[in-house]
Amino acid sequence: MTLSTTFYAMNSIATAVLWCSYKFMCFMANVKRGPTGEVLDCGTDLNMTNGMAEHCKDLSILTWIVLISSMFSEWLWLALLLAPLRALYMFWVHVAAPWIFAPPPDEEEISEKKQRRMERKQMKYKRA
User: CB of 59 within 8 A of CB of 17?
Assistant: First the structure.
């Protein structure tokens, strides 16, 4: 079996993705201490659901699956496109769609006292 340039290039990309996700998770879980040794920040729980660590772990798992399965066919590298597709889906569901399809804000009910005050101001400006 001869290995193509695509195989080496995609292995390099997959290795870079795995290394970056590992370093990012190490950075998130790192404990930050003050000058006297007290704990300022205990780091992020990597098992927390719906957090950045979960998405990073999902990316690592997807990359490992693609990396191992690509030994059988070079076409399986296309499965790495699932990562940006998931990112677009998450952006649409959590950011774009709620912003675009949000109902307009309700107009606040103006009390009678404020209504009379506004009417007096309008009458005052009309006279002037």
Answer: yes
The two structure tokens encoding residue 77: 């590298």
Using alpha carbons only, how large is the chain's radius of gyration in Å?
28
Which ranges of the chain would DSSP assign to H, the alpha helix? Answer: 5-29, 52-69, 82-91, 97-100, 112-127
Q: Over its length of 128 residues, how does the chain's per-residue pLDDT go in tens digits?
A: 567 888 889 999 999 999 999 999 999 889 888 999 898 888 888 888 888 888 899 999 999 999 999 888 888 899 999 999 999 999 999 899 988 988 877 766 778 888 888 888 888 888 76
Domain residue ranges in the chain: 1-82
Distances (CA, A) of 78 to 4, 7, 18: 16, 12, 17
